[in-house]
Amino acid sequence: MKASAVAAVVTCAGVGLAGAGGNAARAQDWTTGGYDAQRSSWVRVEGKISTAALRKPGFQLLWKLTLAHESTAGRGVTAPVLLDLMIGYRGFRALGFVGAPPDHVVAIDTDLGLVEWERRFAPEARATGGSAACARDMTPNLARPTNAALPTVIGGVGGASRAGRPAHGAVGDPGEGAVTLAQVGARRRETPPGAPAPPQSPAPRPAPRPFAIVYVLPSDGMLRTLNAMNGADAESPVPFLPPHTNARGLIIVDDVAYVATARGCGGAPDGIWALDLGAKQVTTWRAPGGIAGALGPAVAPDGTIYVTTGDGQVIALEPRTLKQRRAYRSGGPAFVSSSVIFDHRGRLLIAAASRDGRVRMLDSRGTAFIRTPLVAHAAAPAAVALASWADTNDTRWLLMPGGALRGAIVAWKVAQHDTVPTLQSGWMSGDMPGPLAAAVVNDVIFAVSRGAPASSPAVLYALDGATGKELWNSGTTIPTGGRTALSAGGSQVYVATGDGTLYAFGFPMEH
């Protein structure tokens, strides 16, 4: 029995390793801002986190690490991008990769809370142009290769749900982190109609690697490809952006790196930049009205890039070339969030938050936006981020932090009315001062409250995804409020705080 278990582990690990050097990560790996190509912030993963488990004791702080240098600690660190299973010279590893100012990258063993390796980059160029904020030391953007495919149902992921049905999961293409061949076939059968495969490019593709990689974009604007095992350069750096630009939402899909620039830092216009990793060619698209949101572009299953702008538009761009396909005008105030993309009954829907506190949703087949009612007539925060998930009844939910007068997470249901998708009120959480973007793990909503006043502790909340009822909170464990960031995976939730500390929460296990 033990031999069979070991063989099964090695087989699964081999599959994960085969995909590690390719273009897609395992289903539970948080690879970019907002988790996946669609910026859903919804992790579907085998593990212990569920509403049933959070109702019982045991979820707690596992470890914390201070990662930022004292002189830059007030600028915070990034939430980790994750590699949940890697086979290296030191055996099986689960790693998280964190960016810290100034131009510092740290790899952490997320099981043990120990630093695995670190790199510091020292660009010669200094900041020029833009606001005073451009002159400060910047935090690198990090990402791992991401699959643009929509998620499908995988039996057993996340354990049994309340309805007795499996939660959702996502798999890559063959050779790119697939769990089983049967599941790959299921994904192909269940892909919504009208979502063609990404177009094939004549440009050369990077050679596959026998090891996992992580991409880093520090303030010198050079995209670096690092060996995830030791932080060494996997290839020479490639020029991508002007030095000291304000880069947001680095994402790598189909061997192309995309990122947004904002505030005119480094003399770079607000827009989207694409770097073909095979041809080493850079393409730029300038955004009318500036880029909205902190997560940058979202990528549809067919490779189309969706961008929200400060003048109230959602704009669709071609992959690689960034040629504008279509512009959708909301007819309302400016957007304040990046797009989140999801499927609803075979339709591709795009949603974003606007400055008046509403969520506006667009059917990619049409031109008219659907908007939610106002909630307590509250304006949306300046940098809100939406999240999207589906429960075991296949009900699609949209989550908006800060969508109430005193601060709360507001949930909306996506429904169907006369074949037209609509938004219906779902639930509102309890008071949550300064709530930030939510992360969803299976059917549990995690959100961080920055606290009021700012000197009060930040609090991580776990909410029942169906009702919004509180299941657990971190109390005074995180002493510093202010800027925080959130990611999750591998049965753990990570909170990166403004004082440069990373906290990991989960269920303790023996090592």
What distinguishing features does this structure have?
single chain, 511 residues, mainly beta, Methylamine Dehydrogenase, Chain H, 5-stranded mixed β-sheet, 3 helices, globular, disordered N terminus
Give an overview of the whole structure.
Residues 1-26 and 153-198 have low confidence and may be disordered. It is globular and about 55 Å long. The protein starts with a helix and ends in a 5-residue tail after the last strand. It is built from 3 helices and 36 strands. The protein has one domain: 7 Propeller (Methylamine Dehydrogenase, Chain H). It has a 5-stranded mixed beta sheet with strand order 1-30-31-32-33, with no helix packed on it. Strands 8-14-15-16-17 form a 5-stranded mixed beta sheet, with no helix packed on it. It is 6% helix and 37% strand. By secondary structure, the protein is mostly beta strands.
Radius of gyration: 21 Å
Assign a percent range to the helix content: under 10%
Q: Oligomeric state of the chains?
A: single chain
Specify the overall morphology.
Answer: globular
CATH architecture field: 7 Propeller
Q: β content, as a range? A: 35-45%
What would the average pLDDT be, to the nearest integer?
80
Summed up:
This protein has helices at residues 2-20, 51-54, 181-190; strands at 42-43, 60-66, 81-88, 91-100, 104-109, 114-120, 141-143, 145-146, 152-153, 168-169, 213-217, 222-227, 238-239, 246-253, 256-262, 271-276, 281-286, 298-299, 305-308, 313-317, 324-329, 340-344, 347-353, 359-363, 369-371, 387-390, 396-401, 409-417, 420-428, 439-441, 444-449, 459-464, 470-473, 484-489, 492-497, 501-506. The chain has 511 residues and is mainly beta.
